Amino acid sequence: MSPTRVTAFAPGSVANVAIGFDILGFSVDAVGDRVTLTRSNKPGVNITSIRGVVQDLPLEAEKNTAGQALLALIKMRELSFGFEMQIDKGIPLSSGLGGSAASAVAAVVAANAMLDAPLTRIELLKVAMEGEAVASGSRHADNISPSLFGGLVLTVGIDNPRVKQIPVPEVIHAVIVHPHLQVSTKAARAILSRTVNMSDFVWQTANLAGFISGCYTNDLDLIKASLEDVIIEKQRQVLIPGFIDVRAAALEKGALGCSISGAGPTVFALCLERDTRAVRDAMVQAFAAHHIEADKWIAPVQSGGAHVVSSE
Ligand code: HSE
């Protein structure tokens, strides 16, 4: 018999990774959201509680990322039953750590564990993307894919997404610094120019190709040379007071690269494991010099994706 009550965890994520706007991201399982679903004879989705570090989110399923993702799953499978949903938020609101994606992913992973004929992971990705669209105003998978699959993940395509988990040299770790500010993803997308300068396009394309090739070939020098966003970061850095100093501090302590996590305001750096503490401390101090407090994490880039925590 399929379980009737399931809790799933989905990790946070760093989207874009400097050079892969809307297509690249890695999971951060130091933070994450949990969703508990109970099977209900009443069709649809009833959100009964939202707890944790964020509580002020819509209870109407259509306006909630996890609710909308679940509704998309119900529609895809034409389920005759519904779900009661509790959301436990571990990811701060508008932090740039993929909180809306994680809630959507946790919801569909929990629901999937209750189905006699489960969805494939690509189908789960598609329904979770419907949820993400509620939060950001557009469908993109660079938070959803890493949260669902784990590790560094490239997603090619929207309607028919292809996903590739990219091996990252084990020596590379991430430093994640979350300043106590909020940046709305919709607003951070709205400020972006609709056009890209040709030379920036060439440079960014080379950087994305160089970074991914470097990951596959363990070429730390190529990874370092490539990990630079020449298109998005310069437009968004105004939303994060102190960003320029934080980035400079990370690079000065030996980071391979440092940029905005997703739409911000979280900033991430990739560095060799031995440099992580010095990079983290320098980044936090640079925010402090701007009178901004920050949370911080050091995490491997290779980590697991969403999973069921309990079922009964
Ligand atoms: N790629 C997205 C962005 C991530 O940077 O706008 C946030 O949803």
Termini separation comes to 10 Å
Small-molecule components bound = L-homoserine
Low-confidence runs (pLDDT<50, min 5 residues)?
A: none
Count of beta strands: 11
Question: How many discrete structural domains?
Answer: 2
CATH architecture of the largest domain: 2-Layer Sandwich
Largest sheet: 7 strands, mixed
Share of β-strand residues: 25-35%
This entry's quaternary arrangement is single chain
> What are the secondary-structure elements, in order, as H or E?
EEEHEHHHEEEHHHHHEEHEE
Number of helices: 10
Task: Estimate the helix proportion, in percent.
Answer: 25-40%
Q: Indicate the overall shape.
A: globular
What does this structure look like?
The protein is α+β, with helices and mostly antiparallel strands and 312 residues long. It has 2 domains: 5-165, Ribosomal Protein S5, domain 2 (2-Layer Sandwich), CATH 3.30.230.10; 172-300, 2-Layer Sandwich (Alpha-Beta Plaits), CATH 3.30.70.890. 35% of the residues lie in helices and 27% in strands. The chain is built from 10 helices and 11 strands. It has helices at 65-77, 99-112, 121-136, 144-149, 185-190, 198-217, 220-226, 233-236, 243-252, 276-289, and strands spanning 5-15, 24-40, 45-52, 82-89, 152-156, 162-166, 172-179, 257-260, 267-272, 294-300, 307-311. Strands 1, 2, 3, 4, 5, 6 and 11 form a 7-stranded mixed beta sheet that branches. A 4-stranded antiparallel beta sheet has the order 8-9-7-10. Helix 1 (65-77) links the parallel strand 3 (45-52) and strand 4 (82-89). Helix 1 crosses helix 3 (121-136) and helix 2 (99-112) runs antiparallel to helix 3. The longest helix has 20 residues, at 198-217. The protein is globular.
